[in-house]
Write a structure and sequence with these properties.
Blueprint: E1 3-6, H1 10-21, E2 30-33, H2 37-46, E3 50-52, E4 64-67, H3 74-84, E5 90-93, H4 100-107, E6 112-116, E7 126-132, H5 138-149, E8 152-156, H6 163-171, H7 173-190, H8 195-215, H9 220-227, H10 233-243, H11 246-266
Parallel strand pairs: 1-2, 1-4, 2-3, 4-5, 5-6, 7-8
Antiparallel strand pairs: 6-7
Helix pairs in contact: 6-11, 7-8
């Protein structure tokens, strides 16, 4: 498969590196389109394939076009892309908040997949949910799924509207974890630890806890109970969290992200 990536920021390059790492695409079968001169210089050192600053007729030679520009920049590239795209090509969008219908209308092109990855994709540990227009056939969809899985794991959604919830839950999700980690490190500093020691204690705790979630044959409630002995220190902390309705606050934040994603999708 020959792939063109339009917009070579962090997420676009995460996909490019993953495809090359697993030998899913040859260097010579990559076309990277990047308007930033500074970023083009860094792409040259990476040597991923053909690099250009413009959307030209060569785009038509590629099987898959990945749209990785900022949503607000999409319409500025859609005009040029519309002139060169071919009906046989598939468009994979990883732009937040731009619907399949919006892409179809802007490009006058039917075969569109919309995906929502998250930043751990840069390490090959992401989760990407995606939805497709009816014009994408099952063979094309399986090929795209294999490519996406190079960045971690994937989930296909029949209903595109569910991508708003995905954006709120896993797309924005890493920031929620970072927020909690930051608060825990700050608490450690206030208890007298140097920042590097507090960070080590918290980050290793989160890493180990993740593996327990993934491997222990227990529910989350059981895992909590295994740490929180009656009348102990963990119970004291959990009571404070419950008094402040921390769980409800987190839920409200996630729901607010879902609402905002829906608003952006409607334009």
């Amino acid at each position: 498969m020959k792939i063109a990536i339009i917009g070579c920021g962090n997420m676009g390059m995460a996909f490019a590196r993953a495809f090359l790492k697993f030998d899913l695409v040859k260097n010579q079968d990559f076309l990277l389109v990047e308007k930033s001169a500074d970023r083009m210089d860094s792409l040259t050192s990476f040597q991923p394939g053909v690099i250009t600053g413009i959307i030209g007729p060569q785009i038509g030679e590629y099987d898959l076009i990945i749209l990785s520009v900022k949503p607000q920049d999409f319409l500025s590239v859609a005009g040029a892309l519309k002139e060169v795209i071919k009906p046989s090509q598939v468009v994979l969008s990883i732009m937040a908040g731009v619907t399949i219908e919006g892409i179809q209308n802007a490009l006058d092109h039917k075969a569109v997949i919309r995906a929502m990855p998250n930043t751990p994709a840069m390490l090959g540990m992401g989760i990407t949910a995606y939805s497709a227009s009816p014009e994408v056939d099952i063979h094309q969809l399986r090929k795209i799924e294999n490519l996406i899985n190079a960045t971690g794991r994937s989930v296909f959604l029949e209903e595109e509207e569910q991508l708003n919830a995905v954006t709120a839950l896993s797309g924005s999700g890493p920031a929620y974890f970072f927020y909690v980690v930051k608060a825990m490190i700050e608490a450690g500093k206030q208890m007298g630890f140097e920042e590097n020691v507090a960070a080590l204690l918290v980050k290793q705790t989160m890493l180990g806890s993740y593996h327990l979630i993934n491997t222990a044959d227990k529910s989350l409630d059981d895992l909590i109970k295994a740490v929180a002995s009656k009348g102990g220190t963990t119970e004291a902390a959990l009571r404070q969290f419950e008094a402040g309705e921390l769980d409800k606050t987190l839920e409200k934040g996630i729901f607010a992200a879902q609402v905002r994603s829906a608003e952006l999708s409607r334009g």
